[in-house]
Predict the structure of Class I SAM-dependent methyltransferase.
Amino acid sequence: MNQEERMYVVGNQKIKVERELTGQWILDIGGGGEGIIGLCYGNRVISIDPRIDELEEAPEEPLKIVMDAKELSFLDNTFDSVTSFFTLMYIDNNYHEKVFKEIYRVLKDNGEFVLWDAMIPEYDGGIKDIFVIQLEIETPIRLIKTGYGISRKDKVQDIEYFIDIGESIGFNVIKEEVRDKVFKIIFKK
């Protein structure tokens, strides 16, 4: 069996990323690769990613730091906004609460945490054990077509899953959007 036969593909999900974040400093969790947030907000962004190769691919303007979201090396109340653009799907579900606690800690009072991610259904044990989502991302700069993939085993998530974690940490949900198989949540500290 080849890898393509193993793929559970969610195709052509359209997302629009606008310049809506206010304040001076934005922490982008998992800001490597296409670096969508860095592309949109430039030198206001500090992009972190545990993989140096992902940061090397990202846009040039943001400050890029190799760092794990489970252990943020920033002072409390540092950032006006924190973003996660299809990053939490790559982090083991057992660590999501720890990541949310760290985000809450480094976010200023009344700061916003904006989370974009995918609905990942429960794995049924069949041959389709790789989850792939294809995205068409409209930014103020340009249209980006990309895709992300992970193992489906032990990986289930939806908007309610993340809302529950956020509220348990102390965040308030101020906006939630679902569009087909992707979602966006804006949390406020």
Summary: The beta strands are 7-16, 26-29, 45-49, 63-66, 79-85, 107-118, 130-138, 143-151, 172-179, 182-188.
